Amino acid sequence: MKEVELILSPPEPHFVGDGFRVHNFIPGAYRLDMHRMDPFIMLDYNSKHIFPPSDKPKGVGVHPHRGFETVTIAYKGKVAHHDSAGGGGIIGEGDVQWMTAASGVLHKEYHEEEFSKTGGEFQMVQLWVNLPSKFKMSAPKYQAIENAKMQRVDLEKGGYIELIAGDYTDFNGEKHQGPASTFSPVHLSNASLHAGDTAHYSFPAHYNTAIVVIEGEIIVNQEFVAPTDNFVLFANKGEEFTIEKSPESVENAKVLVLSGEPLREPIAAHGPFVMNTRQELVQAFNDFNDGKFGFLED
Ligand code: MN
Hints:
With 298 residues, the protein is mostly beta strands.
């Protein structure tokens, strides 16, 4: 059995721009530096927060990325994004945007206009997935993974798993595959757990594995209670674990599950750039200052 190493309550939130009120679990919180959850190098969690109506959409203005992927998962509210390659779109409730920044993009991320006007509950995750060194300078790309595109796997009591990336073997032994393409082995999924459902997972011991409790309270490995907004880190021991909705939990539980094979490469990171060497980091700043990331209007 995969052992629970830590159950972390959310750190004090801070604002990213004026639109994202996040608890930063990776890196920095507790023992979670950029290597502990490799290839997951950053995880910001915007726990459920009510934004008042606003005429001017809140968010983060134009900024660059290079060397990794940003994965945005919207649970409540809507996010709009635009980038220097002319791409853009809206990430609605239950949707995921998988952006491969790779050699570099400029983008901006805001609350969607209509959502801004009405205000309301906002909840999301932004995850950074590191790229293997040989793909860091490949061409940027987008995968808009609307909820309907996700592979849905039903559990026994009405709950289900929505596979975003990687695979999942159900209780009949059937293997399902998520729609996202990745540059290294990564599993990303959401589980909705109803009373009596047990979701079983199995990942190699050396894969770095964690879960974020998005809604409700859960029980891990039939023993450990993890409340809403907590982060459960698994030790690199054993392969299988289970999660269930806690009988104490009135609402159904929702859980984000992430597991990935570590890249085990050097990390040179500063702000929006994550490379392998200091030299590549300096190059990223020079390229950005030279306008090589393109142009995007504020
Ligand atoms: Mn960004």
